[in-house]
Design goal:
Distance between the termini: 74 Å
Helix content: over 70%
Keywords: Membrane, Metal-binding, Receptor, Transmembrane, Transmembrane helix, Zinc
GO cellular component, one term: plasma membrane
Oligomer: single chain
Low-confidence stretches: 1-6, 9-27
Structural class: mainly alpha
Organism: Clupea harengus (Atlantic herring)
Bound molecules: zinc ion
Number of helices: 12
Family: Belongs to the ADIPOR family.
Main location: membrane
Shape: globular
Radius of gyration: 26 Å
Strand content: under 5%
Length: about 350
């Protein structure tokens, strides 16, 4: 049976070859344009082969060389290097979050056409923003020193936008009257917007100003506004966790989850663990920044579940409690914050560009 098939295939191949050799056909048949070949990313190099700006403590290998075509960095999504997991953790999180949100919405038979759902929509937009900015930064930063700085400025914009998206959702869906009455409620939204912008600005400044080996001042400059923003943004949730009824309030375990995962993420963000004990063994998989990404995604997943439960529970009274004007105003403030953060990042990009030009021989 297989011999017969092989014979027929060889006859067919011969016939095709004969047809192609006929002068009338070879001249009249249009030739297919040859496809442009994709560039191949260069092999990764060790830490000593890249400028100190790109080196991470205890990560000894897996660095992508600078100066390749942009396409090579996009294609490095499928190459083994020390940023690969940082890219994929956030790249996969975006569709997972969207699918979960779609399932939650369709499960409740509700649409996002009401003003009361605006904070939820802005929260979702903020999560997608931080995930997209992070993917862009980790995937493309090795192109040049200017790209490294500029893309991490963009990453900080994403973090600030996410902070404010969380603050809006926490305020409108998760806060209870007792928390709003203690006075924090009155300054919460302007305070959250200011601290989000300060976080972005201080992180950009610290990134641009300090050189390796980084002094402690750099960490302080980054952590103080970011920690203050977190403490303020999470305060309505913490109040609920402390005073709420855990047997009746099904959102509380998810809120506890988002706080716990965030604290774990913060630990791995600020400590190079486990690579400080396993130098060179966690270069591709297992270093602290990847673990930080994973816990941040888990925090976001828990947060989405909790927010959605609170949104469904509070929906009938959200407009009555807060008023349509305040919700619409908060929506406008979200986009003002995005513009302020972007303007800061562009200004810092220009400052670094000038510094790098001055350093050139
Ligand atoms: Zn990251």
């Amino acid at each position: 049976m297989s011999t017969v098939v092989l014979q027929r295939l060889s006859m067919l191949s011969l016939t095709v070859k004969q047809l192609g050799s006929l002068p009338c056909l070879s001249t009249s048949l249009p030739t297919l344009p040859s496809l442009p070949s994709l560039p191949t990313p260069k092999p990764t190099v060790s830490a000593s082969d890249v400028p100190s700006l790109f080196r991470e403590p205890y990560i000894l290998s897996g660095y992508r060389p600078m100066g390749q075509a942009w396409k090579c960095y996009f294609l490095s999504t499928f190459q083994w290097h020390n940023e690969l997991m940082n890219v994929w953790t956030h790249l996969l999180a975006a569709p997972v979050l969207l699918l979960r949100c779609w399932a939650l919405l369709s499960g409740n038979g509700r649409t996002l056409l009401d003003v009361s759902a605006l904070p939820l929509a802005l929260y979702l937009l903020s999560t997608l923003t931080y995930l997209a900015c992070s993917v862009a930064a980790h995937l493309l930063q090795s192109h040049s020193e200017l790209a490294h700085y500029s893309l991490f400025f963009l990453d900080y914009v994403g973090v600030a936008v996410y902070q404010y998206g969380c603050a809006l959702a926490h305020y409108f869906y998760c806060s209870d009257a007792a928390w709003r009455d203690i006075g924090v409620g009155a300054v919460f939204l302007p305070g959250a917007a200011l601290l989000a912008w300060l976080s972005c600005t201080c992180c950009c400044f610290a990134k641009a100003h300090y050189r390796r080996p980084y002094p402690l001042r750099r960490k302080i400059c980054q952590l103080i506004p970011t920690s203050l923003a977190f403490l303020l943004d999470v305060s309505p949730v913490v109040h609920r966790l402390v005073t709420g009824n855990w047997e009746q309030d099904s959102a509380l375990p998810f809120h506890a989850g988002q706080v716990a995962f965030f604290l774990l993420a913060a630990f791995f963000f600020s400590h190079p663990f486990p690579e400080c004990f396993l130098s060179g063994h966690c270069d591709i998989i297992g270093h602290a920044h990847q673990v930080f990404h994973l816990f941040l995604v888990l925090c976001t997943m828990c947060q989405l579940e909790a927010l959605f439960k609170d949104f469904v529970a509070q929906r009938e009274v959200i407009l009555e409690v807060h008023g349509e004007g305040l919700i619409a105003g908060a929506g406008v403030s979200f986009f003002v914050l995005v513009l302020c953060c972007l303007a800061t990042a562009v200004w810092m990009h220009r400052t670094v560009q000038k510094q790098l030009k001055m350093r050139q021989p």
